[in-house]
């Protein structure tokens, strides 16, 4: 009969953890953008967030002052994580006209327009900017990734669709001194760019595409370049902007500016159709303020039939509105009531606006509230007062967007500051 040998306790092997206690925390890999070496050097707050898998700054040095850099100087923001698609080929225009809401045949080379696209039920999949780089070459920029949808939609068209997010670096230069900085940096002819114009300018051994676009409602530009030119362009702008107050910023400041401009963010102010888990969370263009994009004169496009039917039969159930709220406490994610009793909607974004000197918000309301019924609206705010939350009911009124409108945004030629 065999016996199993048992070692004395003193001879038992010591079991050691594979990681030290400091290494046991959960780690998530984040991609770096081409501008990460410069951003890491400027980072003071260690305030990061996940933007499409990239490590992006929520703030860099002071979110309040970063906001004022947009409105009084010039702000440089890394938009490289923005999803970018290259769409080209003989049928590129026809394909995009079939895909998106606006008439792409009216978009000339060297121009950009803001657009959106829907599924066959007329629910918004995303919104974004469409750049016509040449007669048969486009760039589509958006918040979410849609490559499978775009490829499926392209079946039958002589067109090539590819994602170029990692290959193309991008910056937003926004604020009153942004034009002066580009001119000081030597981008000759940039003064000829009108709102939604784009052009190529030489830089290093290649070129940079500059468009007069942005997400702040201010004078501003967006710059696109191959990744190998990213750091040299950053340095060129920072050097040219020293006397014009250029500062790098994070998303928190940008988000405040976009709200003042009345601009919406996918999966923040509305849930995109591919991300919605509940059937009542999807939205049609008219329900999130994008009805102006729908061009029924151009023929068939994705969702056309459903949109027309919803309009004709009064099936539009929601409306996105701008609100002005009494007091100075932001009402972010507050419930909206009618006559303080009936719950009629929810605030998706809210700030006290330094430019407008108003307490402003975006809210999604159930029709007819915010549409034909806009009186006696209230928001429920919970404010911290001496270590205790107090429930405050504040009156709200529906107001037009944008909350802040700056003439310098559209002035041509742009003003100097």
TrEMBL record:
Keywords carried by this UniProt record: Methyltransferase, Transferase
Transferase recorded as keyword: yes
Every GCVT N-terminal domain range: 64-298
GO molecular function list: methyltransferase activity
Domain of life: Bacteria
GO biological process: methylation
Binding positions for substrate per the UniProt entry: 222
Keyword Iron-sulfur tagged: no
Matching PANTHER family: AMINOMETHYLTRANSFERASE, AMINOMETHYLTRANSFERASE, MITOCHONDRIAL
Protein name listed in UniProt: Aminomethyltransferase
Pfam families registered for this protein in UniProt: GCV_T, GCV_T_C
Domain Aminomethyltransferase C-terminal: 320-405
